[in-house]
Amino acid sequence: MTKAARTNIAADPGFGIYVHWPFCLSKCPYCDFNSHVRAQPVDQDRFVAAYRMELAHRAGLTPGRTVSSIFFGGGTPSLMKPATVAAILDAIAEYWPIAQRAEITLEANPTSVEAERFRGFRAAGVNRVSLGVQALNDADLKALGRMHTAAEAMAAVELAASIFERYSFDLIYARPGQTVKGWRAELEQGILRARDHLSLYQLTIEPDTMFERLRDHGKLAIPDADLGRDLWDATQEAMSKAGLPAYEISNHARPGAESRHNLIYWRYGEYAGVGPGAHGRIATPKGRRAQATESHPEMWLTVVETEGHALVEDEFLSSEEQGDEFLLMGLRLAEGIEPTQFQAMSGRSLDPRRVASLIADGMVEYTPHGRIRVSAEGFPVLDAVVADLAA
Fold first, then answer.
1. Rounded distance, CA 359 to CA 365, Å?
2. What is the model's pTM?
3. Contact assessment for residue 206 and residue 33, using Cβ atoms and an 8 Å cutoff
4. Residue ranges per domain, the chain?
């Protein structure tokens, strides 16, 4: 991971709203997100009313906040009607002040049907889209369970570029049968179509997915660790050369074009989550609270209509838990973490012997400003580095 200078580190990460839309046209075989397929149309008016109730509930827990970012995730939020998005944004504006230049992102699948809605989303207030392209050839798209073609994806990217000031798209690498040469060529295509942000995720086999079952039955093989590392190195090299260095382990941007909403997560800021299976982290006078809602969409709907919210988890985090989360999120970033902030949050210092050992092994390093960050060598084994520091 190339370390570009990031001098605009915010003292206050901001306050975000995450809205989860759990429905998809189909379930991708690699996906472990809270997403559901329904044979019948979703009653979006009923869901809007429930979102309003949950938003009102979270507003009562977060007085005095100003919303700096809103993110519609899923699932497939681009299956929402533009009027549904507008109604939810109106509700947010009713319960909190919204910053003048707030980032409002919506995740979208690049099918031709959904792309036609982009102008409606822009009119509703969305100012950034994130497109789930995933691959730039039809054979791999089919293998990944995607319902669009490469041509449809590129048409959707071009349309997004013409409508939205900011957009991003995702690609998945380390796919079955992928070579470094093939991935380099695909990256070149992606870079040509990117404006200032690309998300590049290395394929992992998640529990309880179709890909896990296929792998366990010997019907799916992804690149081994050595090839995975070669693909990682090729990714970092190509993106840095293009002026889109990694600012987070899987996200690349020109300086200033980072996803502001995701930076709230990684900088361990506050965010309220609404919708089925949404998570949140909010600060209260008594401490930081971890929240999560009922994940089943129809059950979530019923509980919200009955109780006014569908929180199934709302617990205070201990100092140790906060410290662990802070490390887990913050060390994903090229900017790293401020050790004194970790100490203030967790009530303990990072073990100097562990830090020294990781520095000696080339896994972490100090910045000129005294922040600690994972090195280019350490990022491919990030989980192990974080576990070592947190121990």
1. 6
2. 0.94
3. no
4. 15-265, 320-391
